[in-house]
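Notes from hallway chat w/ T.B., transcribed later so I don't forget. T.B. wanted the structure written out for a chain they're using in a teaching module, and asked if we could keep both sequence and C-alpha cells in one place. Agreed to drop them here.
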Amino acid sequence: MNSNNSLPPLPDLNSQLPETVQSLKNIENKAIEKSSQLVEEKQNTDKANKESKKLNKKKLFYVTFTLFLFVLIVFLVLLVTLLNKGTVGIKGKVVDSSNQTPIPNAIITIDVDTGTFTNESGFYEINNLKSGNVKIIVQAPGYKSVTKNVSLTLGLLGGGVSVVNFELEPLEKFEITGKIVFENQIESITFTDAKILVGEKEFAISSNGEFKINVPIGTKEIAFSGSQFIDFVIEVDAKENVNLGELEIQPASNIKAYFVDYITNSPLKPNVEITNIPKEKIVVKDDGNLEIDEIEAFKDYTLEITLDGYLTKSFQFTSEIGEVNLFTIKLTPVGKKAFWSSVNRKVELFVSNYDGTDLTQVTNSGYLNPIGGFYDLANNTYYFQSDHEKFRNEIRRYAFLPYKIDLNNPQPKRLVSNFDNLGYIFADFLKDKYVQIAEDPTNDKKWNLEIINFDGSDKKIIDSANLNNNELIEEVLISSNANIVFYVKKQNETQKLLSYDIDKNSSRILTEANKIRLIDTNNEKVLFRMNDSELKIANVNNFEIKTIQPVITGFDYQFDRTDPSLILFLSQKGADTLVNYIEISNLQLNTLITLNNKVVEDLYYENGYYFYRTKDELFMFDRNKPIDDVSVFKGITYDNRNFQYDI
C-alpha cells in the first residue's frame, strides 16, 4: 500500500481516559441531584392539591346542607299554613241492608248543624267541611237510624273527600188493609186478574175485593190494576197499621173496531173522534184496526168517522164492563143510486146512498110508467120516458114522452112541447134532444127517423121509410156518448143495421140480415144479434163486424163500462147465476163471480161498481174484489117490469 492511502494516527485514548470519566461522573451527579429536587417539588405539589380538594369538599357539603335546611324550613312553613287553612268533603251511598236497594231522600246529618239528602239513586255528597273527627247520623222513613264517628283528614297538599257508605236496617213492616168496591155492586166484576203494586212488589186482591199488604214504614205509592176497572194510584203514609176502608173503582171497558169499504170490504184508515176520549189514544192502524184500553164502562160513546171519498158516519155504542167491543164499521163511498119502484101499485122514483141510507122517494105522481132513463149527476137531474100519455099511429101504438125530474124540486116535467107529427120517441142519453119515428107531414105513407130538440125546434131527418114499399124504421139505440144513433130499417124480408153520426150528419149501412136485434152500444160500437143466434159487434169507424158468441148461451149481454174491450153477460148453472165476461180481442171466456143460490134478473154498471138485481134485492160488487157482495136495498120489493136504474 502506498503512503498516500494510509490513515492518520489515532489519538491516545488511554492517556485521556481518567479526565473524561471524571467529567461524566460530575454530570451524572448533577443530574441525580436535579432529579431529586424535581421529585421533592412534585411531592410537595401533590400534597398541596390534596389539601385543597379536602377543603373544597367541606365547603360544598356545608353549602348544600345549608340550602336543604332552608328549603325544608320553607316547605314546613307552607305545609303548616295549608294545614291550618284547608277543607275536606264526604260522599257515599245509602242502601237497604236487606236487599241492597238504594234509599232515596235519606237524611244525612253531620255534627247537628250540617246535612243533606240522598238522591233517587241513594247517593249523597257534602263539601267544605273542616278536618277532624265528626259524627254522622243517617235517617230514612221505615229504617233504623245509623250513627258513625268519622275522622276527616286533609291530604298532603290540603283538601280531600272521604267515602263513607251506610246500610240501613228496615224497621218493622206495617199492615195496610182495605176493600175495592164499585157502584151498584156490579156482579159481573171479578178480581181474578187484579193486582196491587208497591214499587216492584206485587200483591193479590181477593175475589171479593179485599186486600192486605205489608209495607215498611214511610210514604208509599200503591197502584191498583185490573182488566175490569180503570187503573188508579193512591199515596199512603204508613207509620202504623192503616185501614184504607172502601176504595171505589171505576168499571172499565176496552174497545176494538175495524174499518172497511162498504162494497169491497178492504181495510180503511179514517180519521176517528170519540166523545170523552183523548185524541192521542185514538190511533187507527194501516190495517184498519183500532184498539183503545180503559174507557169508562156503562157509558154512551159516539164515533165520528171521516175519510175523503166516503160519507161521514157517526156510530154510537154503550161500553160493557171488561168487555172487548168488536165492531166492523163499513164506510160508504160517495155516490147516489136512482131507481124506480112500486108503491101501492104506483111507480115512483127513489134515490139513496149506496148502502141504502138516506132513502128518499122523489116522486109522488102515481101515473108515470118510466122506460129507460139516466141520472145527470152534475145537475142532479133524472131523465126518463113514460108511456102514460099515449099517441096512436100506424107504426107504434104509443108514443113515449120524455120527462125530467130535478131532484131538488122533484116535480116531473114533460120535455116535449110540440105534438105535431109526434111519433115513437127515443130519449135515452140525450139531455137536450130526443130521437123519434114520426109521420112525414107531406106524405102520410112515409115515416121519418128524426132528431129534434125537446121544444120541437131544430128538427133533423136521419132516414125515411115508405110504407108503400114495405119499409119500416124499427129498433133504435143511442151511443153512450150521445153522438151516434144505431137503428134497424126493414125492407121487405131483409133488415139493415145503420149508424148515424150526429156531429158529421152522415149515415152508414153496417150490415144486412134476415133478422137483427140491437142489444147495447158503447160509443162507436154496437152489440147486436143476427138471425136469432149469432152475437156480433159492429164498429162504425172501420166497418169491422166481429162474431162474439155463436154457441155460448146467456142473457143480459152488455159492454163493460169501465173496459170497453170486455162484454159482460149472465148465465145460469143449476141454482147459481154466473157473472161472465168475454175479451173481445181473443174471445176468451171468463167467469167473474158465481152468485150462489141466486136467480139474477139483470146486471148493470154505475160509478165504478157492478149491480145485479134479484126479485127482491139489489146487490153490488167491485169487479176487482167481487167475493164479498153487498145487499144495497134490503127489504124493498121491486116492480120487476118497472125497475129502472142509471146514475
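Follow-up for T.B.: The helical segments are 13-85. Might be a good example for the class.
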